[in-house]
Amino acid sequence: MSEVKVSIVIVNYNVKDLILTCIRSLYQFCDSTGDLEIIVIDNQSIDGSCQAIRTEFPDVILMENSENEGFPKANNQGFSIAKGDYIFMLNPDTEFQENSIEKLRQFLEDNKSVGIVAPGLLNTDGSHQSSVWRYPSLFSIFCEFHYLTSLLKRKNYLDKDFTKQFEAESFSGAAIFFRKSVLDKIGNLDETMFWIEDVEFCYRAVQNGIKCVYFPETKIIHHIGQSAKKNYTISISNQVFNKIKFFNKHHSNFLAKLVILLSFLHVVQKSIVFGILSPFNVVYKRKASAYRYTIFKVFNPPKGIA
Hints:
With 306 residues, the chain is α/β, with parallel strands linked by helices. It is built from ten helices and eleven strands. The strands form two sheets. Strands 1, 2, 3, 4, 5, 6, 8, 10 and 11 form a nine-stranded mixed β-sheet that branches. The longest helix is centred in the last third of the chain and has 25 residues.
């Protein structure tokens, strides 16, 4: 058996069809899987995912959690047993079109100064997917809360040419390829974060002198947003909490308090608006409930999944 060079870590939660498609495409486009290992961490799926993986892919290393440990912790479980010199943190709702793993590995082999690289991501219809961002700022948080995303071209790197490589601050955790030695220098994903663990991981890397590069010479399809689809309590609350937790950890107390204040005003406003609209649409009713839930936790966000 050849030595493992790349460890692919996939966290699964009730997306059986998607993860099977992901692994099938990986086997289809990799010239040889002898120097790869696929590690799947399952967060207590009840859709038959584990049995399906064991049956179709007996070589996959499968770890079954007895409860939903959350995305960061489950990834860290995979990192801890990974044998490769490189780790590919990969979402189960991704799909390969070519041997992206070899291209990413070769890029890091040829560029010793780079520690983290991310491929281009495509939507299901083949269009470009936003997957690279600058770090959150007070301005970006204000704009996101008030639907002024058109003012965030720089934050979303829309000032860059996405057909060319460029050094970036952070990437989507759907597909991040990095040297295993990065973990020795900065540690694992922060398990108290949720939906911002990828940005926070890259932030610590850059702060420690590790270069991160966007690499569009290979692209992967990302069927985005399947696991938390329509769960407004999770999606709305964590979109608020993750910014607060990021500023609490990496910025001054003054800036962190400003973010909390912005977040509180935003949540109160939205709970009122959707509360008024709730009799007219069940979606508005669910959103109103999610914002009310969030109000009472803004000043002390929960660790991990809300």
